[in-house]
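Why predict the complex rather than its parts? Because the way molecules touch one another can change local conformation, and only a joint prediction can capture that. The input here totals 223 residues.
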Amino acid sequence: GQQLNQSPQSMFIQEGEDVSMNCTSSSIFNTWLWYKQDPGEGPVLLIALYKAGELTSNGRLTAQFGITRKDSFLNISASIPSDVGIYFCAGLMGGKLIFGQGTELSVKP
Amino acid sequence: GAVVSQHPSWVICKSGTSVKIECRSLDFQATTMFWYRQFPKQSLMLMATSNEGSKATYEQGVEKDKFLINHASLTLSTLTVTSAHPEDSSFYICSARQGHGELFFGEGSRLTVL
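Output of the joint prediction:
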């Protein structure tokens, strides 16, 4: 089935550092979404992107919808310990959300 | 904001028994609900799409007779794992939306089959 390739798979960073992760797909999506999932909980929406080329910020988070509509990246600036978790990209196609494999972020105080 | 609630949060059952998981939209009418399964350290995989009042649409490879989905009202969908086996142990997550609105996720239900 459809698949989004998300990288990196995991990251270990120092508090205060910036983080970048991205997703690519062979298919075109009309909407890209970025979620964060804490252990034992459902994913929580961070940023939604609706237009190719769109750059959207939510606090320290910035995400962009690639111009080809086949990719997106998420940046986290000045990371803090509570940024720890798994970040998923997701593309909306035919009313269904297709998820990337996730990026597990660890932040060392 | 809108809230989607799942119950139970976790359940342990014996192999061969059936388990029902509920997904409720608390402050909106969910015309569509989705059920996902997530194995440890893996992504969310869509199992089925449920529209109120009609039969669920299952993704390829998901057994409809094993994973029974009912969406009898605009605020409730249930997933029943029939004759559960240890390989069915997973984190089951539902999501819901009203029309083409934003999608909201439940907290997830962790199933452990002994």
